[in-house]
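Might you be able to check the backbone structure tokens below? Thank you kindly.
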Amino acid sequence: MGQRPQRGRVYRRCGCSDGNSKQLGPWCPQLAADVRHGRWTYCVDLTPEEGRRRTRRRGGFATRVEAAREMAAVLDGELRGVYENRRTTVASFLRE
């Protein structure tokens, strides 16, 4: 069972906002004009647990290579069966 190459994507986004204080994200016109504007982000669809679709988005990477490397690590961990649950508290971890 191998990875599907279309499970994730890497893109740039920024925190600029329009006149209504809504973030422009990846649709900011400055992203096309300035290569240093914005930060790199990855988005990947994870295998559904309990019938619910899960999407992981992480951003703040300085380069596209860093974001792609992290996305590959997430997909590789999923393929090996290693799931990272960031919502696990210390108390629930110790109970398990």
